[in-house]
Design goal:
141 residues, mainly alpha, 40% helix, 6% strand
Length: 141
């Protein structure tokens, strides 16, 4: 096993040797903690969310207990995240439809990730346009 901070990543990708940039500032779990499964990034969940959805989802993760439960009121959430009530409601409802959170009117639960992300058709179409534009600029296709 490699020393902490010098691990190499695998999985058929280019091997990158990692080292701690500030060894005196390594994070430790003290008391409660939150986590985001690596699948959230690698399986496309992050890419499937809007900016406000990401903001609310991360806030709920940070505010939740070990079961994913939290009970912040909408006005406190809006103040913390500096978003309007309409933006909050839209992000909350979309996270519920995407099966990432549950909400009973008072209590939130961040759910275990579903098998795959549900992508919004508008976001998907925008990503296709961006991908095409990048390919055209790089390869002229």
């Amino acid at each position: 096993m490699a020393a902490p901070g010098s691990e190499k990543s695998g999985g058929g990708r280019i091997m990158i040797e990692k080292k701690l940039l500030q060894p005196n500032r390594v994070r430790h779990i003290d008391g409660g903690f939150s986590f985001i499964p690596h699948r959230f990034l690698t399986d496309g969940f992050l890419a499937s969310l809007t900016q406000k959805e990401i903001l609310l989802y991360f806030f709920l993760i940070l505010a939740s207990d070990r079961y994913g439960l939290s009970f912040y009121a909408y006005d406190a959430i809006c103040a913390f995240l500096q978003i309007s009530l309409d933006q909050y409601i839209e992000a909350r409802d979309r996270l519920i439809r995407k099966d990432l959170i549950a909400f009973d009117g008072t209590l939130f639960q961040v759910l275990d990730l579903p098998k795959q992300p549900e992508e919004d058709p508008v976001i998907s179409q925008n990503r296709k346009h961006i991908k095409t534009a990048i390919q055209q600029s790089l390869w002229g296709t």
